[in-house]
Amino acid sequence: MNLTLKVWRQPDAQTDGQMVTYAVDDISPDMSFLEMLDVLNEQLIHAGDDPVAFDSDCREGICGMCGLMINGNAHGPQVTTTCQLHMRSFSDGETITIEPWRATAFPVLKDLIVDRSAFDRIIQAGGFVSVNTGAAPDAQAVLVPKENADAAFGAAACIGCGACVAACPNASGMLFMGAKVTHLGMLPQGQPERDARVVSMVGQHDAEGFGGCTNIGECAAACPKEIQMDVISTLNKDLRTALRHHR
Are residues 97 and 10 in the same domain? Predict the structure, then answer.
């Protein structure tokens, strides 16, 4: 496959960026998208140019590092992570536009790399449970109804990639935050701090500059782990309950 790439290049957070066009040839349809970018970077290095900076780690679709906007879609044309997207999803001769996540809360650091530490600060604000450490308790010591366990497990699948924010016209992080709140709120261990958790996390979310949710649904459509919008309903319900308790 021969492709034309339009790639966002930005040397640092303080400098304005621009789209730069490159041509890559002989790309195998079986390559992953990141392997294709590796080929581009080898080409740039051999030409004495600065390679394109992009995030990746596991390349197995489980760490959330690799998020890119590809032809205007978070992670590209398939509902998967960028590292698991293969070039057979594109056509020979196609022009592909590659950009970083676009959100006030995710400032660009360089090229395709954004600072997603805002997510970390939301988790630090309340996305945890306080427990006494020591020997692991017996597996059956705390009983959890299967319906709750399944809901918690599904919400815990969120990898914090930020696709929900990138896809949302408001750059809202509510799907991410809803997944974290639902995961802990469905388990007995998450009950003692349930009210304080949701209030603190929502406050941090807003302070970071994320937008509000208007139920458009682009977040769930783009989520590579298929987190559903009902976690946002759970978050809103928990927030209303917490605010009533603290009047």
Answer: yes
At residue 140, does pLDDT exceed 90? no
Same structural domain, 60 and 158: no
**Overall pTM > 0.85:** yes
pLDDT (tens digit per residue) in 102-138: 999 999 999 999 999 999 999 999 999 987 777 877 7
Q: What token pair was written down for 56?
A: 């990746």
Rounded distance between C-alpha atoms, residue 118 and residue 191, angstroms: 25
Determine the Cα–Cα distance for residues 111 and 98; give it in Å rounded to an integer: 10
Token pair in block for residue 216: 């458009």
Where are the alpha helices (H) located in the chain, listed in sequence order? 33-46, 117-126, 146-156, 163-167, 174-185, 194-207, 218-222, 230-245
**Pairwise CA distance, residues 150 & 198, whole Å:** 21
Cα–Cα distance, 247 to 234 (Å, whole number): 20
Residue closest to 184 by CA, chosen among 130, 242, 225, 240: 130
CATH assignment of the domain containing 105: 3.10.20.30
